[in-house]
Amino acid sequence: MSLTDNLSNMNATPTERMPSADRRELILESATEVFGERGYTGATTDGIARAAGISQAYVVRMFGSKEKLFIEVLNRALQRLTAEFRAVIAAHEASGDPIEEIYHKLGLAYIDLITDRGMLLSLMQSFAQGHDRVIGEAARCGFLEIYQLLRDEAHLDPDQANVFLAHGMMMNTMLGLQLPQLYGTDTGATELMNAAFGGKLPLVLDATGQASASN
Q1: Plot region of 132 (φ>0 → left; ψ -120 to 50 → alpha; else → beta)
Q2: Considering only CA atoms, which of 90, 72, 67, 66 is closest in space to residue 29?
Q3: What's the pLDDT tens digit per position in 194-214?
Q4: pTM for the whole thing?
């Protein structure tokens, strides 16, 4: 290979050599993190493009607008969440464990999703856009889809589903408030996170860059 070829390969960005489907997923991953951190209003397609290491023009060409990209991020998050829940339900049914244990297993699976950076926060950001004609409708449908899955497939009763969703929203709120940054230094934040995340706390601290706080 010539020196010119080597220089060309060095100057080429990884995304230039990616298949279109992989670039699409890279954009969605970056958009999930940016939307989760900054919200729909604070995020820009330019900021998402920079996070993904590609051009803004490519983002717009692939998704059309920030609104459409946000809807794609929401749908991706809902699809992953429901897929994880259904996998837990299937494994639980195959195990023969008591039906009461499904609640705990679903909760653990929900916490595991924090490793997909920004995913749980992007869901919360979509709920905050309930007033928006397009995003609000998609968010409402997604939220009710989760509720119906808990009722019809996990067989939680309305009270159990209510508590489960409330606990999930509390965890999202703690992430949005960046409470992991206060773990180990603020008594209230430390107690609350210990109670909410239990044995999954090390995963949460690691995913939010606060793993050293637990040491």
Answers
A1: beta
A2: 72
A3: 999 999 999 999 988 876 555
A4: 0.84
